[in-house]
Amino acid sequence: MDRISDGLETKAGAGSDIAALFAEFSTAFEEFKRTNDPRLGEIEKRGTADGLFEGKLDKLNAVLDGHKAAIDRASAERSRPAIEGKGAVRNGEYKEAFSAYVKRGEEKALQIGVNADGGYVVPADVETEITRLMTHISPIRAIAGVRQVSSTVYKRPITVTGPQTGWVGEAANRPTTTSQTLAELSYPTTELYAMPAATTAFLDDAAVDVGQWIADEVNAAFAAQETTAFVTGNGVNKPTGFLAAPTVAETSWSWGNLGYIATGTSGALPASHASDVLIDLVYALKAGYRQNASWVMNRKTQGAIRKLKDSDGNYLWQPSATADGRASFMGFPLVEAEDMPNIGANSLSVAFGDFRRGYLIVDRQGVNVLRDPYSSKPYVLFYTTKRVGGGVADYDAIKLLKFGAS
């Protein structure tokens, strides 16, 4: 366990007692506030604070992050259902054929399980479990819009400007209105893969739940790769991330760009009234999007904004009221995505928006497993693939905070 000077500690292996973990998280946040309050008082009086405060706050931020990670792990473990294990309902011949293929390479029911390239399509409930686990640990997938398709490319028409409308009297002439402007957004799906390995002894064990094992082995790898692509992907053999979209100052926003608000200070929040620029970012988003909006930032950025208060002395960052909930900032849910950039000169380190409408993830149906017992003996490799795409769906639904002068 990592201890810090005030006696608080990070529980690395606290098990699945979520209530106890949440209580420790709440205690750590109260200590954070007790440390930050005098720091803010010194800044108001002298314009600066003792460096000891900053050091202790950094440690407390690490403690809070550690507790939150432990809560997330415990929640994931508790919510994980069995697929083929005791008490689960098997879906018959196809699942048995998949199990035989994974364990022994027997290709039963070839006509329903194997496609042209030799990959064995996993049973539907295993595919569902892989997606569910990724949703739990992939922060962008958890808040974005998701579509499942059967083709390699999903094309979506969207109205950029609607038809002209107006009010008229009962007997007045009806002038001709202009037609709406349409655009087509295209989301190609590209291949994402993982290659877990197992020994033949492990696979020969009759108690091994092969479906759950495949899901457990690939979901973390898939989720990590997906999240990076959804945030920063360049669209080459991967989805296009929302930070890869063109950006313009919010005052010059037009369709095809994401608007940003600048902090006015390179690599930092403003020295005074730091929260004002974040309020500006909230209200840069239209009301129809704000009601379902979320903040997206990484852990270090969250540590910086955790110190901010409103004019009444209330902390703008608030921990979740429940163990399985999200922290909030200014009343909106806060999503932690480590692929968001750290605060730096001209960095786009904070996103705010309705990601359900603003970013679309496209999953092609099916997860394939190709068994390879030859390349890395004595291990058996399982080349597991799925196809996924993604990109901005509504350029008006996501706004960014730029840590720059303009």
Radius of gyration, rounded? 25 Å
Bin the helical content. 25-40%
User: What do the pLDDT scores average to?
Assistant: 82
Shape: flat
DSSP helical segment count: 12
CATH architecture of the largest domain: 2-Layer Sandwich
Spatially, the strands of the biggest sheet line up as: 9-10-18-15-11-14-13-12
The CATH class of the largest domain turns out to be Alpha Beta
Strand content: 15-25%
Describe this structure in words.
Helices cover 36% and strands 24% of the residues. With 406 residues, it is of the alpha+beta class. It has 3 domains: 2-79; 93-138 and 147-160 and 180-237 and 364-388, 2-Layer Sandwich (Major capsid protein gp5 fold), CATH 3.30.2400; 242-358 and 395-403, hypothetical protein PF0899 fold. The strands form 4 sheets. Strands 9-10-18-15-11-14-13-12 form an 8-stranded mixed sheet. Strands 3, 4, 7, 8, 16 and 17 form a 6-stranded mixed sheet that branches. A hairpin with a 2-residue loop joins strand 13 (328-329) and strand 14. The longest helix is centred in the N-terminal third of the chain and has 29 residues, at 18-46.
List the helices and strands and how they pair.
Blueprint: E1 2-3, E2 9-10, H1 18-46, H2 51-79, H3 93-104, H4 110-113, E3 120-121, H5 124-137, H6 139-143, E4 145-149, E5 153-161, E6 181-188, E7 190-194, E8 197-199, H7 200-204, H8 210-232, E9 247-249, E10 258-262, H9 275-284, H10 287-290, E11 294-297, H11 299-305, E12 317-318, E13 328-329, E14 332-336, E15 347-353, H12 355-358, E16 359-372, E17 379-392, E18 398-403
Parallel strand pairs: 4-16, 9-10, 10-18, 11-14
Antiparallel strand pairs: 1-2, 3-16, 5-6, 7-17, 8-17, 11-15, 12-13, 13-14, 15-18, 16-17
